[in-house]
Amino acid sequence: MGAWGTGAFDNDDAADFAGDLNDADPGERPGLIREALEAAADNDDYLAASTASAAIAAAAVVASQQPDGPEVDSVYGPEFLTDGDSVDLPEEFADLGVRAITRILSDESEWRDLWEDAGSLDQAIGALEPLRAALNR
C-alpha cells in the first residue's frame, strides 16, 4: 500500500493525485477530482487500493471547500490548497464524495482489506469521518 499514515494524503497514490492537481491548469482540477471520485463511487468490481486512495484525496479536497470543512494541511496535499487558494467545485461533488467513501468502506475494497490486515481499520475509518461529516453538511 505504501501507506505512511491514515491521513487523506499519507500514501503514495494520494500524494501522486495531489501532484497531478498541482500540475493541472486550475480549470482542469474539477475534472480530475470528479474522475477520481467516480472511479471509486461507480466501481462494481473489487476496488483497488490505488483507486480508493486517490478518491479519498479527492474527497478531502472537496471536504476542504465546504463551509467549516477540514483544512488540507498535509505537506503531501495539493500545494495550492495549503497555500490558501481554493478550487471552485459543483455542489454535487459533496454527494459524489460521500458515495466514493461509502464504496471505499464496503467489503469489496482492497483499501479496507489492507487496513484490516494491518489491524488499523478503525483508525483508518476514523480518519475519514471528518471528511464524510463535512461532505454531508
Give a brief rundown of this model:
The protein is mainly α.
Oligomer: single chain
Instruction: Sketch the major β-sheet.
Output: none
H/I helix tally: 7
Low-confidence stretches are none
Q: How many strands?
A: 0
How many domains in all?
1
Beta content: under 5%
Structural class: mainly alpha
- What's the N-to-C terminus distance? 31 Å
Rg, nearest Å: 13 Å
Topology pattern, helix = H, strand = E: HHHHHHH
Query: What percent of residues adopt helix (DSSP H or I)?
Result: 55-70%
The gross shape turns out to be globular
Mean pLDDT: 95
Region (Disordered): 1-29
Protein name: DUF4259 domain-containing protein
InterPro entries: DUF4259
Task: Describe the structure in your own words.
This protein has one domain (12-136). 60% of the residues lie in helices and 0% in strands. It has helices at residues 12-23, 29-41, 49-64, 79-82, 92-104, 110-117, 121-136. The N and C termini lie far apart (31 Å). InterPro entries: DUF4259 (IPR025355).
SSE arrangement:
Blueprint (H helix, E strand, L loop, with lengths): L11 H12 L5 H13 L7 H16 L14 H4 L9 H13 L5 H8 L3 H16 L1
Protein name: DUF4259 domain-containing protein
Organism: Kibdelosporangium phytohabitans
